Amino acid sequence: MADFWDKQHALGYIKRSDKMQIVVNAVEKEGKKYVDVRNYYRNKDGDWTPGKGISVPGDHMEQLIKILSTKQ
After folding, report:
1. Which of 7, 33, 44, 51 might form a disulfide with 58, Cβ 3.0–4.6 angstroms?
2. pTM of the entire structure?
């Protein structure tokens, strides 16, 4: 994904297994900011490779945080 984004900075990692993790990145494309939450897996060479995920526009973060912090 680093080739796609103009800027990318890792905010945190969630280990799922030795071969899979969730990576949360602050990213930017053409001047627009996003938070990218994506599964990464180890490929056959042992390198981390991006998989499925979602990129949330920065101007929607307050709404997303509100949704995630709502008690169920």
Report:
1. 33
2. 0.85
**C-beta atoms surrounding 62 within 10 Å:** 9
Sketch out the chain's domains with CATH numbers: 7-69 (2.30.31.10)
Q: Count CB atoms within 10 A of the CB of residue 9.
A: 9
Q: Which two tokens stand for residue 40?
A: 């990464």
- What pLDDT sits at residue 72? 67
- pLDDT band for position 2 (50/70/90)? low
Return the exposure string of 19-56: e unless at least 16 CB atoms fall within 10 Å of the residue's CB, then b: eebebebebeeeeeebbbbbebeeeeeeeeeeeeeebe
Residues 6+ apart with CB under 8 A from 27: 1, 5, 7, 8, 9, 33, 34, 35, 36, 55
